[in-house]
Amino acid sequence: MERNQQLRRQLASMRQSLFDQGHLDEQFILLEELQDDANPNFVEEVVTLHYRDSARLITTIERALEKSPLDFNKLDGYMHQFKGSSTSIGAKKVKAESTQFREYCEAGNGEGCLKTFQLLKRDYATLRRKLEAYFQLARQAGPNEIACRPK
Amino acid sequence: MGGSMKAPEKEILGTKMNHRHRPKITALVVDDNMVVRAIHHRLLQDLGIENQVAVNGKEAVDVHSSGQYFDLILMDMDMPVMNGIEATRKLRAMGIRSTIAGISSRSLEREKQEFMEAGLDDYHEKPLTADKIVSILHKISNHSG
């Protein structure tokens, strides 16, 4: 019982820190609100989908950034897709960096694109790691601890 | 970002939209992004709206060519194979009079205008929320009288 309470407190703290550190925005809360008894793992499922989809895009963008000259239209197109997916799960920092990257594409600023992409990859990996740890802990704590709306 | 509808609003919506004398609302989610499709599908499901998904504009057109009809179509703009603008034009040319709402991350007025002129009834910027869906649904209920 006490162990469970400790897990719950840890889980709540982890979740809050994701917002406090600027990794997540209110879109993540919307996903949590869609979770219920019939869809108890909705948030984790969507986040998993996102990381599967976005990993492919990261690789594609990396390859595109190796080309010379840079095709800014293509880069912008890839990042548009990546940003859409990131926005959907509430990935706040990554979304901001995606926007910055697209602005550099529009300006034809290759160096800006490269620098921003490095920052994006760093924050993308950080959020992924933190969310994986969060969901792992949520599974340990049990289904009551995933934000479920009462029916 | 207004994401959550209060429970009483959902109840009123459910009563209004799913009255026993009124058939259940059906919807088609058209978006090339699997994450977005999953979320929009769930948002609609949560509002009691039966819905299917299509991965691009061509699939949306094909599903209508096969004879299916939806009260509401949520149409993304940027999609491969056939984008939302072209798909909307084609659907209207086919005589499809469903409520079509453009759902896009584009924010420039001229981009929105081009999409609207293709035949949309409504337009909302992503991310889609329950409140935005409700405002779209009120247009359906107003059209059907």
From TrEMBL, chain A:
Q: Which Gene3D superfamilies match?
A: HPT domain
- The record's principal subcellular location, in a coarse class, is cytoplasm
Residue ranges of domain HPt in the record: 39-134
Subcellular location(s) of the protein:
Cytoplasm, Cytosol; Nucleus
For this protein, the parts annotated as crossing the membrane are: none
Question: Sorted alphabetically, which InterPro entries does this protein's record hold?
Answer: AHP1-5/YPD1, HPT_dom_sf, Sig_transdc_His_kin_Hpt_dom
Give the source's domain of life in one word: Eukaryota
GO molecular function terms noted in the UniProt entry:
histidine phosphotransfer kinase activity; protein histidine kinase binding
Q: Which UniProt keywords apply?
A: Cytokinin signaling pathway, Phosphoprotein, Two-component regulatory system
GO CC term, one of those recorded: nucleus
Q: Per the UniProt entry, what is one GO biological process?
A: phosphorelay signal transduction system
Residue numbers carrying Phosphohistidine:
80
Domain remarks: Histidine-containing phosphotransfer domain (HPt) contains an active histidine that mediates the phosphotransfer.
Protein task: Functions as a two-component phosphorelay mediators between cytokinin sensor histidine kinases and response regulators (B-type ARRs). Plays an important role in propagating cytokinin signal transduction.
What's the name of the protein?
Answer: Histidine-containing phosphotransfer protein
The organism of origin for this protein: Citrus x changshan-huyou
Taxonomy of the source species: Eukaryota, Viridiplantae, Streptophyta, Embryophyta, Tracheophyta
TrEMBL record, chain B:
Q: Look up keyword Hydrolase and say if it applies.
A: no
Q: Which domain of life is it from?
A: Eukaryota
Q: Does the keyword Acetylation apply?
A: no
InterPro entries according to UniProt: CheY-like_superfamily, Sig_transdc_resp-reg_receiver, ST_Response_Regulator
Response regulatory domain residues: 26-141
Q: Locate the 4-aspartylphosphate modifications and list their residues.
A: 76
Gene Ontology biological process terms from the UniProt entry: phosphorelay signal transduction system
Q: Any idea which UniProt keywords this protein has?
A: Phosphoprotein
| PANTHER family the record matches | TWO-COMPONENT RESPONSE REGULATOR (PTHR43228), TWO-COMPONENT RESPONSE REGULATOR 24 (PTHR43228:SF12)
Q: What is this protein called?
A: Response regulatory domain-containing protein
Q: What is the lineage of its organism?
A: Eukaryota, Viridiplantae, Streptophyta, Embryophyta, Tracheophyta
